[in-house]
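In response to reviewer comment 3 from the previous cycle, which asked for concrete evidence that the modeling workflow produces usable outputs, we include below a single protein chain processed end to end. The sequence was submitted unchanged, and the resulting structure tokens are shown without manual editing.
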Amino acid sequence: MGTRFEELAWRETPIGAISLRRRRDPALEVEVYEVKLDDEFLMSSLFPVAEIELARLGLAELAGDTLDVVVGGLGLGYTARAALDDPRVRSMLVVEAIEDVIDWHRRGLLPFAAGLAEDPRTRFAHADFFAAVAGDTGFDAEAPGRVFDAVLLDVDHSPRNVLHPSHAAFYAPAGLRRLAALLRPEGVFALWSDDPPDAEFTAALTEVFATARAHVVPFANPLTGGESANTVYVALTAG
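The workflow returned the following structure tokens.
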């Protein structure tokens, strides 16, 4: 049956104390993995559907046979793992601000993300995604100015509910233009959000990108017995 509750990792960071814990849910009879920032829940293995759809919906818009992808925010690894399931992905750069999160995957603490760290297409960059967009180098310090086919982002709760005030500027047109400059023609920017579709943010996307759409992703909520939903925004640069 295993231990009812175990804290697998904990570390103080510049944005708060981040922790990874595993618990046994007796009602659902499953092991649940959760990430907390201080007392706030960031993610749970009970709700992976939209994180997986972030990769699927984003990459589905691309026509190329070989794709270079950036994943912003590693977390429990669902988005990155789903991206690698697309056989067209030849390289994936995962940009993660908290080194401990990268270490969780290298140590194999998350069984549902098995193989992610070992896949030869995966490279981890311990860096601030938002600072990389705002800077002159871009995402890949080994190849300044490198452009990608897709950027899949899951860091903040939503464009309006950010984890740190410094992230807010990214979601305005000026920040999105800097992101678009790191994408190839007909490249994709996809974003996970915990909030319903935001008309103001969609308008900011359409100001910068050739097309933009908000997808509502419903999923069964085992805690309530009902249905919940997240949003995945998908925007394409011009050809």
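The helical segments are 49-60, 78-84, 99-106, 129-134, 173-180, 199-208. We consider this sufficient to address the reviewer's concern, and the full set will be provided in the supplementary archive.
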